[in-house]
Amino acid sequence: MKKEILENQILTSQMLYFDKPLKEVVFTGPRPTPRPGSHEMPPMALRDAIKPVELLENGDVLFRFFAPDAECVEVAGWGGGFPRDRIALTKGEDGWWSTTVSGILPGFHYHDFFVDGTRLINPDSAVGYGGFYPANFFELPSDEDEFWMLRDVPHGDLRMEYFRSSETGRVKACWVYTPPGYDENDERYPVLYLQHGGGENETGWIWQGKINMIADNMIADGLAKPLIIVMNTGYAFKKDQKYVFFPGDFDAELTRDCIPFIDRRFRTLADKHHRAVAGLSLGSSLAFRSALQHRDLFGSMGIFSGGFPIARAEYDYTEYFADPEQVNRDFDFIFVAGGEDEGFCERTLPVLDELRAKGIKITDYHHKGFHVWDVWRFCAYNYLLGLFQ
Question: Phi/psi of residue 265, each to 5°?
Fold first, then answer.
């Protein structure tokens, strides 16, 4: 077989679903032997499925895992609102293991299952991509979370676009949110380039971050300007390149390849005052560096859960931030945010206050929570409140 076929990128493309039916297939009657070359399915029926993760009214969470031959099944969070300590499930006569866990804080929760000591995905539960591998997750919402919920409002579109990276030579996919009514008018729109964090990919802000729902709801409520949002994978490694904190030269890929492609493909307002960059964690560092290196391209930046490091091994902007008038001329909106339980108030706020004392205009926001998606949704919401206003 041709190497070009064996290594084609489409072979690793994966699909996800929306609105999972809580039914499972039950085969009825004897399974017939399929004819050679056929794909005939035996007769089947549907029955109510057992929920692998069930949110109880008192705030507890019931976990279930089907493993009839296992000797031990455990569940554990990733830390923060759902601790890493393994919790044993109890086996039932039907082969389902279960346990009810109290004290999990509201929010987004990746979690792991361990079957006889081996980490496994629960195939019956929701799966996302985080930590560089597929992982189960669930949402434990609170009354504050309506801003990212699905509502009956006009909805924008999500489009997967492809462009070639001159940095790596690979075809890259980017997800593009266009606001409600984009195809029914000839208006031009500002653009936000929004980055995921380390261990995630360009789908993160959609499946975990719900950014399209946030934008739909805010636009419908008149709280945000209609805008285009572009989400790229932040990894731009060349072949055989070793891992470094900045994953290859993503900045070059973004500014040299993606932005020109988006400006050709979509009706954008292609000037710095209508172009912003933001990201979470690793993505915030990518956003910070791109914004500072290309002050002619970006007029706004958003830094979520990344501190505000004006100097590090890869760059030093100490001298630049010593000139408040220049910074304020270059940027319309600098927004820095994070979780209170990840040290934002102790580590980041003092840095921002020192810069603001010099006269630099910086907006900050912090929300109770850890280094996790529920905090970043609040960050994005508050960033959009002030962006392009």
Answer: -85, -30
- Calculated CA dihedral for residues 204, 209, 213, 215, nearest 10 degrees: -100
pTM, to two decimals: 0.89
Domain extent, residue 372, equals 147-386
Helix (H, G, I), strand (E, B) or coil at 380: helix
Within 13 Å of residue 182, how many CA atoms lie on the same side as its CB? Answer: 23
What is the identity of the amino acid at 46?
L
Q: Tell me the per-residue pLDDT of 76-112, one tens digit each, with 9 for 90 and over.
A: 999 999 999 999 999 999 899 999 999 999 999 999 9
Tally of CB atoms within 10 A around 300: 23
H helix runs in 294-386, sequence order: 324-330, 349-357, 373-386
In a shared domain, residues 134 and 166: no
Q: Which two tokens stand for residue 350?
A: 């003092």
What is the total residue count of the chain?
A: 389
Number of compact structural domains in the chain: 2
Run of H or E residues at 290: helix 282-293
